[in-house]
Amino acid sequence: MPLASDVAQTRCCVVGGGPAGVILAICLARRGVDVTLLEAHRDFDRAFRGDTLHPSTLELLDQLGWADDVLAIPHGRMTEVAFDVGDQTFSVVDLSVLKTRFPYVAILPQAKLLQFLVERGTAAFPKLVVRMQAKVDEFIRVQGQVVGVRYNSPDGHQELRADLVVAADGRFSSLRKRAGIEPIRTSTPMDVLWFRLSAKEGDPHEMHFRIDAGHLLVIVNRDDYWQLGLVIAKGSYHDLKQGGLEQMRELVAKLAPQFADRVHELAQWSDITPLVVEASRVPRWHQPGLLLIGDAAHVMSPVGGVGINVAIQDAVVAANLLAKPLLEGRLTEKNLMAVQRSRAWSVWLIQRLQSALHKRIVRGAIDPLKPFRPPWILRLPGVRKLAARLIAFGPVRVRIRGEKTPFV
Ligand SMILES: Cc1cc2nc3c(=O)[nH]c(=O)nc-3n(C[C@H](O)[C@H](O)[C@H](O)COP(=O)(O)OP(=O)(O)OC[C@H]3O[C@@H](n4cnc5c(N)ncnc54)[C@H](O)[C@@H]3O)c2cc1C
Predict the structure, then answer these.
(1) Which spans in 298-359 are helix H?
(2) φ and ψ of 79, to 5 deg
(3) Separation of CA 18 and ligand 1 centre (Å)
(4) How far apart are CA 77 and CA 70, in angstroms?
(5) Sequence ranges of the chain with CATH classification 3.30.70
(6) Are 166 and 14 in contact (CB under 8 A)?
(7) What digits encode the pLDDT tens for the residues 303-359?
(8) Which is it for strands 128-131 and 135-142: parallel, antiparallel or unpaired?
(9) Cα 175 to averaged position of ligand 1 atoms, centre (Å)
(10) For residues 52-81, b (16+ Cβ closer than 10 Å) or e, as one string?
């Protein structure tokens, strides 16, 4: 057993270096709170997990003074969400009508964003400590209260004590399981098959959505390659696989003829990653000494591509509400409850809207028996503007509060 003096101590231990954990750690350290961020992986370069930075996130990065540098990283931009259906294009949302410095969604690799944030955050805020290859495997509890974690690192098994542990460890959160918190799941009508095809000189650059004959294909420009997502009816992956890879290649070539010359790059089924789409939220985001945020607290459907942005908004609100009590050493569960109160209704509302869009758009788009017709309501200018605001900012425009602590 380590001696008491050997046990590392911090004010806040954030578990998980995804968008939620990294932004929370930065916002707390900016206010002068001692934070240690523990991330299981060696780096941020891992499987595709979405790249969309909505106006809300770009505005928050701008508040930190980093938006221009983030946008200097090569990225794509999407101003309009439009579906190509046969030879017609239906515009669903136009972000250019919004009053913001960033009336678009930036499509920027998540790994590059996280790397940038960690480098910039640790350089700017001495209170921020980031430990990579630090996989948390259990809580330390005293009389039921979480008072720290134990984690594995290249230096062996370590302990870190903290006034608050934040589980920002993603959709499969092991900390959530360890805390015995069960998410409430809602059913979604679809799954997504993600795969990539090479980019070629002269390819168009924007992100597209194509709907044809009961299929919906999402096409994302990743600069040196294309990321494609084929939306399929829930549970139909097995049938598609039975049909054989050639049938899958033909389907992609039919939906997006510009890729007909390279569908052979799908050489085996392991080139295709099935994502089981789920939506869920936990009934309670906290226990004494523990808070859940981001995907650990709620998994959003991919509709609207808002998961990263909602996770970041959780982080900012948590830092706004918790920095002062953490600094003053008087954090109670009431403060954690305030974070849930501030964020849970917003998450609930977005999930309800996503569920309505599943019924009105996605289900129709992947129904092979009926031609797809976009809902007439989306032609009303007021509805389109409201949809643009919700996609851009969510139900509330979140801002980073509190002054940056001067560091000497
Ligand atoms: C295929 C796919 C496509 C997506 N596309 C989009 C999109 O286009 N737009 C969008 O907004 N959202 C998208 N999402 C959702 C988005 O990725 C998530 O909503 C977002 O990443 C959630 O952020 P987070 O910080 O809560 O969790 P995560 O990003 O999942 O981060 C959790 C982190 O915790 C670490 N971790 C886990 N366990 C431990 C442990 N025990 N100890 C230490 N560290 C641990 C993980 O390594 C990870 O880095 C997509 C998701 C998937 C899977």
Answers:
(1) 307-327, 333-357
(2) -100, -30
(3) 6
(4) 13
(5) 190-275
(6) yes
(7) 888 999 999 999 999 999 999 999 999 999 999 999 999 999 999 999 999 988 888
(8) unpaired
(9) 14
(10) bbbbbbbbbbbebebbeebbeeebbbbebb
Which amino acid belongs to residue 359? K
CATH architecture of the domain covering 190-275: 2-Layer Sandwich (3.30)
Identity of the residue numbered 71 = L
CATH 3.50.50.60 matches 4-77+108-185+279-357: yes
Pocket of ligand 1 (CB under 6 A): 15-21, 38-41, 48-52, 135-136, 168-171, 174, 194, 275, 294-296, 300, 302, 305-309, 311
pTM: 0.93
Yes or no: say if 148 and 130 are a contact pair by the CB < 8 Å rule. Answer: no
Question: Within 160-306, where are the H helices?
Answer: 174-178, 237-242, 245-255
Pick the residue whose CA is nearest to atom 38 on ligand 1: 169
Domain with CATH 3.50.50.60 in the chain: 4-77+108-185+279-357
H helices present in 145-190, as ranges: 174-178
Element (H, E) at 94: strand 88-94
Q: Closest residue (by CA) to atom 41 of ligand 1?
A: 136
Q: Is the dihedral of CA 21, 22, 27, 30 positive or negative?
A: positive
The 3-state DSSP class for residue 288 equals coil
For 74-86, write each residue's pLDDT tens digit.
988 889 888 888 7
Residue 363 to residue 387: CA distance in whole angstroms: 19
Residues whose CB is less than 8 angstroms from the CB of residue 284 and which lie 6 or more positions away in sequence, other chains included: 181, 340
Q: CA–CA separation, 188 vs 306, rounded Å?
A: 16
